[in-house]
Amino acid sequence: MKREFKEFIIVESDIEYRHKYANRDEIDALKVDDKEIIILKDGLLTDTSIANIGLHVDGIWLTPKTPLLQGTTRARLIERGFLKCEDLTIEDLKKAQNFALMNVKVIGRE
């Protein structure tokens, strides 16, 4: 089932989430109302609560160098040269022409 997100908010957290867990209480506690979150850690973008992210900036798809979770789709797209890893900030998000969520085998389209 395709999910639609109408609004994202940025939340700052020092959360650790290196392995996928069934218990997502710590991540869910960061959410506000029905909005999806983009997690900022140490001043850098990491992930949303459900997926890795990609930003399309100046013709290049970028993904955070230090995500919370090293997702398999993200890893595959890096390996194929589709994504480039960089430290990403809120300023990079503002410059992005597109924003993608990567979870399982789906990536947002331009």
Describe it.
By secondary structure, this protein is of the alpha/beta class. It has one domain (8-102): Alpha-Beta Barrel (D-amino Acid Aminotransferase, Chain A, domain 2), CATH 3.20.10. Helices cover 16% and strands 33% of the residues. It is built from 3 helices and 7 strands; from the N terminus they run E-H-E-E-E-E-H-E-H-E. It has a 4-stranded mixed β-sheet with strand order 6-5-4-7. It has a 3-stranded mixed β-sheet with strand order 1-2-3, with no helix packed on it. The model has no long low-confidence stretch (mean pLDDT 84).
List keywords for this structure.
3 helices, three-stranded mixed sheet, D-amino Acid Aminotransferase, Chain A, domain 2, alpha/beta, 110 residues
